[in-house]
Amino acid sequence: MSFKLTDFITVSDTGNVGIGTDSIEGKLTLNHTAAELPSSGTSSNSAIQIISSLNNQLNIGLNTVSGDYGSYIQASDNNLAVPYPLFLQPNGGNIGIGTLSPTNLSSQTSLTIQGASVSRLDLLGASGAGGGVVFGTATVFTVQGNYGVPLVLDAGTTADMNFNIGGSTKLTIASGGTATFSGDIIRKGNVGNISFEGGSVTNINAQIQYDQVNDTTGQLFFKTANSGTLATRLTISSGGNVGIGKSPSTFRLDLETTSGGNGLKITRGTADFQVFQVANGASYVGTGNADTLHLITGGSSKMSIASNGVATFSNYIDTPEVRQGGEFMIGRSSNIIRVGSGDASDSLSFYAGASERLTISSGGATTLFTNIGSGLDNAQLTIKSDGSAVTTGLMFVNAANTSSFNDLAGIASYIESGNAKGNLKFWTRNSDGNNNDRTTRLTISSGGEIQVGENAALVFGTNNATDPYIQAASSGDELFFGRANGFQMAIRSDNVVDFKTGIRFINGGNTTLDAYEEGTWTALLTTTGNPFNNQSNQTGNYTRIGNLVTIQAQVLLSGATSSGTGEVIITGLPFTCSSSQAAYGSFNTGRVALSNTLGSSISVPASSNYIRFLFLVSGNNANVLDASALNGQSTPYMAVTITYEI
Predict the structure, then answer these.
(1) In the chain, fewer beta carbons within 10 Å around the N or the C end?
(2) pLDDT tens for residues 5-17?
(3) Domains, the chain, with CATH or none
C-alpha cells in the first residue's frame, strides 16, 4: 500500500519514495520532465540540484535532446556561469567504468575503463584550442596498451603531440610525423633494433641493430636490404674498430670490397683520392683524375707524384735519400752508392714482374726467388766474364780479417778447352798462412766426373755415359767407407773388400751378414761312458757364413778298438748350436757293426757342440750308435758333414 504526501510525492509501503511518479523502483525514483543540458549562465533544469550558501552547486540530470540522450553531473557556481571541479574519491580509492573490479594499485588510485570489446579514453579540447593528457604520478609516466589492442595517442590532424617530463618538453611529434628529442634515447635489453620500412610494403629496408656483448660492452650493426635481403654493411665493435663489408679486425677501419675498384674514395670538387684493390689482388693508392699525389710529413709535402708519373722530392742534396719512416735510403757516401735500410732489423727486397725476386736480410743472408722454368739454361744467377778471363766464380770473405788472406772459400768455373767446355771447382782455405793453403775440395769436370779432393781424391763418374762408378783417383789408393767413429768397409789396393761389422740384406728380413770365417777344428770320436782305447784327435774343416756353420771331418780309430761304453759321439765342434733348434746331417761309416736300420743321420743337439749318430728302426723310433758297434772292429771310421745355426 502506498500513499501520497502531495500530488507529486508518493511513499510506498516499503518506505521508497517517488517524485513525479507512482512507479517506484528504488529508494528514490524521480520522473524528470524533458530537459536539455543546462548552458553556462542559465538556470538549472537538472533532476537533482544541490546548492550551498557559498555560491556553488551540483546538478545531476538527464539530457533529453534527440540524438544526444544521456546523463550528466555538473559542478558550478549558483548560476552555472563558472564550472567548478568535480571530485571523485577525494580521499583515495580506485574508480571503475564498465567494471566492478578496477585495477588495484596498492596505495595508488587507479581509473579502470573496460568496454565490451575496445576500451578508449579520449581527451579533447575545444575546436581550435590546445589540449593535454597526463597519466601516472609525479615521478613515473606510463602509457600502455593491453589485451592485443593497439594503443592510439591522437593529437588530431594538424596539432603536434608533446611529451613533457620534468616540467619541459622532451619529445615532440609534429603533425607531419617528424619526431624531435631534447634528451637521450636509451634502449634496454640484450638486442635492440631501429628499423625502417618502405612506404607501401612491410619489408625492412634498413636497420640499426644494437647487440650486447656483456653488461658493460656492446656493438652496433648497420644493415640495408638489397632486393628484400637484409645484410650487415657496417659494424662498430665494442672497442671502436669499424668493419665495412666484414667484421671489425684489429685495425681501426677494415674495408672489404667485392669487386675491383670498389674501395675508399675521398672527393673534393673534381679531385679525388682513392685506395682500392682490383680482382687480381693488386693494391692501388692514388688519384682518380689527372691530379698530383703528395706524400706529407711534418705538415708539408716531401714528395709529389704528378699524373705523368714524375716523382719530385722537396729537398735535393749531394747525398739524396728516399726514406719511408726514416729507414729506406738511396744515396751515396764516400764514393759508395748505398741502397738499403738504416734500421738494423730491416731486410731489403727487390721485385720484378710483380713478384719478390731477391731479399737481403738484416743479417746479410741473400735469398733469390725465381720461377724461370726447368731447363739447364734457366739460370737463377748468371755470372759473366769479360771474355779474356779463364775463371769466373764466387768468393766468401771474412770482413773481420784485415790481412790479405781473408778469403775463406769459393766456387770457381774454369775453361777446360775452347770457349764451351768448363768445370766447377769448390775450394776452401785451411789456415791463415798464405795463398798456398787454398785447396780444391771438389771438382766437377765438363764430362760430369765429380772428384773430391786433390791428392788421394775420390772420383764419381760414368763409363761411356752409361755405367756410374766411384773410384779412387790413383790405382794405388785404397777406398774407405765409414762413419765418424771409423771406417766400416774398405777396398784395399789388392782389390779385397774388408767389412768391419757385417752386411745387412734388407729384402732378406732385415738380417745382417756379420761374419765370414774359414778354419779347422779338432774332432774326437769318443763315447759318453768309458773312452775307446785307441781314440785320438782328428782335424776337420769348417766354414761360417753369418750365423750358419758347415763342418766336415773324417775320424779314424787306428788298430783294434775296445773298451768303449755308452753312446758314440764326436766332440770338439768349433761353435755351439743355437738354443732354438737342433741340426741334422749325413755321414758315412766303415768297419762298424750295425744292425738292420731304416735310415741314419747325424744330429747336433740344441745348445751343444757335439755330434750324435741316429738310426731309424721303426716308425718315429730311432736308436743312437752304441760303443759296442765299434768294439772289436779294426780301424773303424766316420765321415760327417752337417750345417747348423749358432
Answers:
(1) N
(2) 677 788 888 888 8
(3) 191-293 (no CATH), 512-645 (2.60.90)
